Amino acid sequence: MASAYSLSRLEVAGLGRIVDPTDASDATTSVPGQAPAPKPTRSDAVSALPAAPKLSLRNLSKVFRGRAGELVALQDIGLDIRAGEFISLLGASGCGKTTLLRIVAGLERDYSGEALLDGKRITRPGKDRGVVFQDHRLLPWLTIEENVGFGLSHISRKERSEIVRYHLALVGLSGFAKSRPSQLSGGMAQRAAIARALATDPEVLLLDEPLGALDALTRLYMQEELERIWNEKRGLTVVMVTHDVDEAIYLSDRVVLLSPRPGRIRRILDISGARPRSRDDAEFNGIKRVLLGEFQLLHEKTVEYVI
Amino acid sequence: MNAKSISALEGMVAPVLLVAVWVGWTSRHESLLCPSPAKSVAATVGLWRSHALQGYLATSLRRYALGLAVGTSLGFGAGSLLGSSRILERFFLPNLHMFRQVPLVGWIPLLIIWCGQGDLSRVVLIAMGSFFPILVNTHAGFRQVPESYLELGEVFGLSGWEKFRRISLPAALPWIRTGTILSLTFGWTMLVASELLTQANGGLSDILDVGRERFRMELVNAGIVILGLLGFVFNLAATRIWSVGSLRWRSRNFHQSNEAG
After folding, report:
1. Structural domain boundaries, residue B67
2. How many CA atoms are closer than 13 Å to the CA of B209, on its beta-carbon side?
3. CB within 10 Å: which end of chain B, N or C, has fewer?
């Protein structure tokens, strides 16, 4: 399917910008009038960048060692993320996208290379990063407002209840403060989890397939909600793991496409269209075709390996 | 009338029938071996009037309370430690299980030699009886705390103690509840076993002993019913107290919301 790949690339040429971190010549082509994105570099060159990135991953690798041998989950990841950016990590299962997110969250400490937040090495979780998991992980013995205020135990009750009230309103759950997680639908529970992650006022929000467990219609609605929340929390940097191509295009400033075994960045795609994006216009579909084309190539590659 | 009270009524059918058969049988064939329930009731009233029953109750309940307090707090503490630490679990859990295989009454001779024939032996035996159920259940409760909840605690930067207090403990509470209720029952059994060792010890088992010695079966029957009723009342009270205390936890919904993902 090599022809389909080059065809879709042509179609997208005027709409978005394609950055291939493995191909230096490709990365230099940029659309006029658009600030050049910080290019992921192998060597440390923080000072050479136009602005210090919020999140910076350099030569990042992660190997899981088990009895069966070694599994390279991530290999040589280089990625800079600007403050306020919405980034999607897109890939099939097993491409290490969740591992990447967990490293940024500080939950995986044993990695090689660098993962820097505001220039500082990430070694553990912190209140500067909020995390939303695929399962909402609301604690069943707490009410929704207690769950949302879970990370705010160190401030006064009055302050806490104000912050909780604001965030419940932000995610549209004002009427459910006293409810239990078991009384909420999947989408509502996930909104409560987002409120909980935002309540501690993080600078970076990490979303690990937050809508993966929801039905298709709720998913579409929640994508719009996510964009609205991101708009209201100006300056919030979002890194979202997803395997949904539409979701990635609809929400992201850039889509980072990962290939599996070992997990590597295959392509970084700028999406410049105005928001809110229409899901059926030419640009949307053009980018979608490129991404799906890449997936198909990956698939063919795997098949070749098997044979 | 709601479904709950109907099922409670249904549960009453068998005991009522039993008493009816007992009354019917003894009205025709009353013997020394099988006196009528009315005689047992009269004997109980007599014990109460002479203040003997109150004395027995006070003595037994004091032993029970002491033994339970020691046994359940040690059991809870040990269960929490074993449930929270893999190392402690590996070192001590197999030994504890081995220890548990000795039927509790098998310890009695040893206890008598070490602790004498007084209340100390009884309290220790009750403590041993109530120790294991809460230990095993508390341990299981802490073991099943989902890893994902603990990870959530990490994301919010909770310390080890905060994770224990705010995540593990409430998540384990439904299991701890079961453990305490079982401990109550086992402790009660051990109270009677320990009292039957020595006659005229001042506890409730004196009713049984006196009845047996003087061949007053109505006293023996009364003693058995009193022990059974008290055990039932303790169990009911514990269940009620827990269900009020754990309203927040809704243990019934616990697994459902856990799996809902």
Report:
1. 54-253
2. 15
3. N
Judged by DSSP in three states, A265 sits in strand
B204: in domain: yes
> B128 vs A126, B60, B92, B113, B187, CA distance in Å?
45, 16, 17, 16, 8
Smallest Cα–Cα separation from A250: which of A224, A213, A214? A224
Residue with more model confidence, B251 or A192: A192
Distance from CA of B155 to the nearest CA of A (A): 5
In a domain, B44, yes or no: no
CA separation for the pair B182, A271 (Å, rounded): 62
Q: Do A180 and B250 touch (CB under 8 A)?
A: yes
| DSSP string of B205-232, one letter each residue | HHHHHHHHHTT-HHHHHHHHHHHHHHHH
The minimum CA-CA distance between B143 and chain A, rounded to whole Å, is: 17
Q: Are the C-beta atoms of B82 and B139 separated by less than 8 Å?
A: yes
Which of B88-92, B151-155, B248-252 has the weakest average pLDDT?
B248-252
- Mark A207-217 as b/e (b = at least 16 C-beta within 10 Å): bbbbbbbbeee
Query: Is the Cα dihedral B212, B214, B219, B221 positive or negative?
Result: positive
Distance CA A149, CA A196 (A): 6
Q: How far is CA A90 from CA A100, A209, A239, in A?
A: 11, 10, 11
Q: Tell me how far the alpha carbon of residue A219 is from its chain's centroid.
A: 16
Interchain CB distance below 8 Å, A125 and B254: no
Total domains in chain B come to 1
pLDDT digits (tens, 9 = 90+) for A206-244: 999 999 888 888 899 999 999 999 999 888 999 999 989
Q: Report the alpha-carbon distance of residue B136 to residue B138 in Å, rounded.
A: 6
Task: Return all residues near A74 (Cβ < 8 A) that are at least 6 apart.
Answer: A60, A61, A62, A96, A99, A100, A103, A111, A262, A263, A264
What residues of A are in contact with residue B144 (Cβ under 8 Å)? none
ipTM: 0.77
User: pLDDT tens-digit profile of A78-121?
Assistant: 999 999 999 999 988 878 899 999 999 999 989 999 999 999 99
Q: Give the number of beta-carbon pairs within 8 Å between A and B.
A: 69
- For strand A69-81 and strand A86-90, is the pairing parallel, antiparallel, or unpaired? unpaired
| DSSP code per residue over A122-148 | --S--TTEEEE-SS----TTS-HHHHH
Nearest-CA distance B77 → chain A (Å): 22
Question: Nearest 5°: CA angle at A243, between A241 and A244?
Answer: 110
Q: Kindly state whether residue B218 falls inside one of the protein's structural domains.
A: yes
> Where residue B150 sits, what CATH number does that domain have?
1.10.3720.10
Query: pLDDT tens, B29-71?
Result: 888 888 888 899 999 999 999 999 999 999 999 999 999 999 9
In-domain check, residue B109? yes
Helix ranges (H only) for B85-166 are 86-100, 108-115, 119-143, 147-155, 160-163
pTM: 0.78
